[in-house]
């Protein structure tokens, strides 16, 4: 009989990761109390540590775009503009040639 993977709610993961982050109990004890593997507890703890700074980066509920994201958006906007010009040109030429 194949083993089915269990899925855990984000709230459960956060609670377990926070408990591990506090360091009051060892990881193996937290894992046994919650019936999960100790490696999973460590992974959730590491993920929580990596994303904690993002919570405080937001100002007024909006995330600031990085320079890389802004460059990517600008590149896409230029490409859209170029494609619109090409489409208009092709429509004009096809009309001149009588191709509809």
What's a concise summary of this model?
The protein is mostly helical. Helix content is 72%, strand content 0%.
* Fraction of residues in helix: over 70%
Quick one: biggest sheet?
none
Total number of strands = 0
The domain tally reads 2
Overall residue-averaged pLDDT value: 88
**Alpha-beta content class:** mainly alpha
What is the global morphology? elongated
Query: Helix count, per DSSP?
Result: 4
pLDDT under 50 segments (min length 5)? none
How do the SSEs run, as a string of H and E? HHHH
Strand content: under 5%
Distance between the termini: 62 Å
Description of the structure:
The chain is mainly alpha-helical. The protein has helices at residues 10-22, 27-34, 38-57, 67-97. The model has no long low-confidence stretch (mean pLDDT 88).
Layout of strands and helices, then pairs:
Layout: H1 10-22, H2 27-34, H3 38-57, H4 67-97
Helix pairs in contact: 1-3, 2-3
Name a few traits of the molecule.
elongated; single chain; about 100 residues; 4 helices; mainly alpha; about 0% strand
